[in-house]
Amino acid sequence: MKDEAHRSDSAVLTAVREGVLHVTINRPDKRNALNRATLDALRTAFTEAKRDDALHAVVLSAAGERSFAAGGDLREFDALRSEADAAALFDHAAAALDAIRATSVPVIAALNGTALGGGAELAVACDYRVAAAHACIGFVQATLAITTGFSGGEDLFALLGPARAMRVLAQARVIDAHEALALGLIDDIAEQGQPLEARVAQFVQPFVDRPPHVVRAMKQIAATHRRALSQATRDAERAAFVATWSNPAHWEQAQKFLDRQRASTDGSKTKPA
């Protein structure tokens, strides 16, 4: 397939190269945090990808080397306080992740750095995760006194099973790439000094080598199995998020987090050049 630019905007960049759609979250100055505009752009990119019969795979990556996605953009979501607000936030984010899950070819998340909170949920919504040697993943939602809020809990429980998934959520810690590989959270790691892009290209190659209609058939089988596992989980996950998001304990922790962010920003502004 001829290389071509496909779509670009301020939040997400997309391009097709050799039958692979590359989708890049483009907010490096915000550690690629997921606000509503970014979630909308991701949903659009993956919805459009479903219509391209020539694709073999999609690679989801992020700009920079520091962060794949630092979670939901709490500065924007801070105003969402009611149960109705929380339910709308969950549904909005879930729609973006559902567009990824519904993509008709395999989706590979290229973890260039930290994937935290909603960013970890975004990563596990993809079919595979390939990580840079320094990358890490953390389901840290419990540090804000909430549960998974983007619908990624259903993917985490399917990947790890109920017992291990609950423990990962309760520990709420950042897990390095090698431990995440052993747990089954990621699928491959770039060797020290190896560019992540090269490792991802190696991982994607088997899908590129097969005719697109065969790859799509494989993905259809996998997607049917995945839906069967997750259907009973979504409503419970949504209800749990709404209950924890609207609880005062969450807002107490969220305020502490925002205060630390503001102090860090103010401090950097006053440091000598």
TrEMBL record:
<dbReference type="Pfam" id="PF00378">
    <property type="entry name" value="ECH_1"/>
</dbReference>
<dbReference type="InterPro" id="IPR029045">
    <property type="entry name" value="ClpP/crotonase-like_dom_sf"/>
</dbReference>
<protein>
    <recommendedName>
        <fullName>Ethylmalonyl-CoA decarboxylase</fullName>
        <ecNumber>4.1.1.94</ecNumber>
    </recommendedName>
</protein>
<comment type="function">
    <text>Decarboxylates ethylmalonyl-CoA, a potentially toxic metabolite, to form butyryl-CoA, suggesting it might be involved in metabolite proofreading. Acts preferentially on (S)-ethylmalonyl-CoA but also has some activity on the (R)-isomer. Also has methylmalonyl-CoA decarboxylase activity at lower level.</text>
</comment>
<comment type="similarity">
    <text>Belongs to the enoyl-CoA hydratase/isomerase family.</text>
</comment>
<keyword id="KW-0963">Cytoplasm</keyword>
<dbReference type="InterPro" id="IPR018376">
    <property type="entry name" value="Enoyl-CoA_hyd/isom_CS"/>
</dbReference>
<dbReference type="InterPro" id="IPR001753">
    <property type="entry name" value="Enoyl-CoA_hydra/iso"/>
</dbReference>
<keyword id="KW-0456">Lyase</keyword>
